[in-house]
Amino acid sequence: xxxxxxxxxxxxxxxxxxxxxxxxxxxxxxxxxxxxxxxxxxxxxxxxxxxxxxxxxxxxxxxxxxxxxxxxxxxxxxxxxxxxxxxxxxxxxxxxxxxxxxxxxxxxxxxxxxxxxxxxxxxxxxxxxxxxxxxxxxxxxxxxxxxxxxxxxxxxxxxxxxxxxxxxxxxxxxxxxxxxxxxxxxxxxxxxxxxxxxxxxxxxxxxxxxxxxxxxxxxxxxxxxxxxxxxxxxxxxxxxxxxxxxxxxxxxxxxxxxxxxxxxxxxxxxxxxxxxxxxxxxxxxxxxxxxxxxxxxxxxxxxxxxxxxxxxxxxxxxxxxxxxxxxxxxxxxxxxxxxxxxxxxxxxxxxxxxxxxxxxxxxxxxxxxxxxxxxxxxxxxxxxxxxxxxxxxxxx
Length: 396
What we know:
The strands form five sheets. A five-stranded mixed sheet has the order 3-6-13-14-15. The protein has a four-stranded antiparallel sheet with strand order 5-11-8-7, covered by helices on one side. The protein is built from twelve helices and 15 strands. It has helices spanning 6-14, 16-22, 72-84, 88-104, 111-127, 131-148, 172-180, 198-203, 218-223, 248-254, 309-314, 361-370, and strands at 50-53, 57-60, 161-168, 182-186, 228-234, 261-268, 275-276, 281-287, 289-291, 315-317, 325-331, 339-343, 349-355, 377-383, 391-395. β13, α12 (361-370) and β14 form a beta-alpha-beta unit. The chain starts with 5 loop residues before the first helix and ends with a strand. It has 396 residues and is α+β, with helices and mostly antiparallel strands. The chain is elongated, with a radius of gyration of 26 Å.
């Protein structure tokens, strides 16, 4: 539950005067607050009736349909209906009302309802060419979506930490990450898979927006995705006897043909449950899912107007399944940099560092010097001559 969502309050306050005006308008849909013991309930207004508001204003509802709205879910349903009907002015009235209702009942609002409210409200404002406000609402939608999607710590056996691996080449950039206990997050577009995050291929495809009944919101919706950043890790899969550190393809592809190194991290849940509602920022760890392109293709022509996060960011062809990837995803609006740094707290730490078979001794000594006085084990990889397609390691 969200009790004090700063973004929600900001949006509600910005609509306060407009909502006051809408109470006495003759829009196609009018939402009148009942004056009764529960002041947050909304009564059904039947065509042909008049209603007195606060003993001051009488409203003629003879041409207006009525809606029974007693909670946020019902308000969202009305917004959707009016939006689908193309009655954006009336839908905007419903949006204004819904945000007031959400603020008044903040202790009862679920994140799921708030996510739907942000999304549907953004669609309405986008169609009304209020694009800056639509973009702000889409940002809130993304922030809440990040929190609601199943992540590596959510809906599983309670645990405070997870062990993950990251393969790196030797460079000043990667050395700085080690020294500062940081992780580099990058735009998905710079990844080596041309369809790494399917949402961006979808947004650039000729099918984007085809299933949308209305098109005016699409530019703001597309723009809202530009602030995702990701970092990739891999994990062991003991059930299939697959261990990251022994994966020769990972060493070849991501550790500069065995001349780089691999970092073994122990990540604490607190470092990957970050929410900042003042900036609509959220960060989570997710496991990737792999699909067979022949038996389980992704067809953008069948995509809904909003691509679900599981498909949008967490799905790859099973050609990549050898990576056994876990992905750190951060949504941080107004982040124009291609790459940015994610700081780790002392609760998340480097457990060990593995040097590739071809890693130069000079580079090994530089890294050991950088990480001295930390409780870190160092290992050197080598060919396992009892099984030459596997690697093993010795502590150094």
